[in-house]
Amino acid sequence: MQSVISVEQLNKTYASGHKALQDINLEIRQGEIFALLGPNGAGKTTLISIICGIVNPSSGSVKVGGKDIRQDYRSARAQIGLVPQELFNDVFETVLATVRFSRGLFGKAANPAYLEQLLKDLALWDKRDAKIFELSGGMKRRVMIAKALSHEPAILFLDEPTAGVDVELRRDMWDMVRSLRERGVTIILTTHYIEEAEEMADRIGIISGGQLILVEDKARLMHQLGKKQLKLQLKEPLQVLPPALAGFPLELGGNGLELVFTFDIQSEQTGIAELLKALAGLGIDFRDLQSSQSSLEEIFVNLLRGRG
């Protein structure tokens, strides 16, 4: 698949000496949803700001649609829509006026039909004549998205797009993101809501301490690094694990009524058959069992813990 963003050997060191980014190499594919995960201060916003031409790198290169963001800024930046974390708007302007102005900043010809449809898609059309300061926080966030999409960019950056947004608005926004992807728009998002990345993203990048420690297809990441658990609901409680079960990766919980067996899904031998045989030999009966796989959040935490 063709890359629309190419980042090579990117570094950023601030005047204070803080190394915000170190040797970042990244390819973003056309039409994908790419989620960038990392703790506060990891470098997510700095990386986005450099790609969007807001912050200058110390070294390295960034190309957007084949255009260098520094040498051919106008052409590169015209392909990008950015929804930043901070809500800043012309608070005394109306919704329609501020979105129309944003389109004009990129030299785009007036297109009232496009802007009308955009505002309708974002449930803003009924608010088109309202002043920005009259809107709720969630509606202001939608205006930021409308401004970012006003010039019909091929790439959309969403930096913590649903921070401070209620659940209903969050779901509406992700429906919109899906529809944009269906129209061929490339989406890059940072989020603290890991469940959103797990639900939405095609690929995941994990950044920590200014270093991109992993980039992988979401499904492959969860398959390679995830663990599966088998939970057995016992008929009678156990006070402690019998010594005969000491060799199994087991935890006793649920007031002694639950055994949790963790196994590697990559292993040819999961050990489940041996466990069930051992339980039968000890006369330990269970009334139910169920399996579950590690969530992306658990994988993320374990990866960062491994680098600590």
Question: In terms of topology, how is this protein built?
Answer:
Elements: E1 3-13, E2 19-29, E3 33-37, H1 44-51, E4 59-64, E5 67-68, H2 73-77, E6 80-83, H3 95-105, H4 112-121, H5 137-149, E7 155-159, H6 167-182, E8 186-190, H7 194-200, E9 203-208, E10 211-217, H8 218-225, E11 227-234, E12 250-253, E13 258-264, H9 272-281, E14 286-293, H10 296-307
Parallel strand pairs: 3-8, 3-9, 6-7, 7-8
Antiparallel strand pairs: 1-2, 1-4, 4-5, 9-10, 11-13, 11-14, 12-13
CATH C-level class of the largest domain: Alpha Beta
Estimated radius of gyration: 24 Å
Q: Could you state the CATH homologous superfamily of the largest domain? A: P-loop containing nucleotide triphosphate hydrolases
User: Low-confidence parts lasting 5 or more residues at pLDDT below 50?
Assistant: none
N-end to C-end Cα span: 34 Å
Biggest sheet record: 6 strands, mixed
Helix and strand content put the structural class at alpha/beta
- Stated plainly, the CATH topology of the largest domain is called Rossmann fold
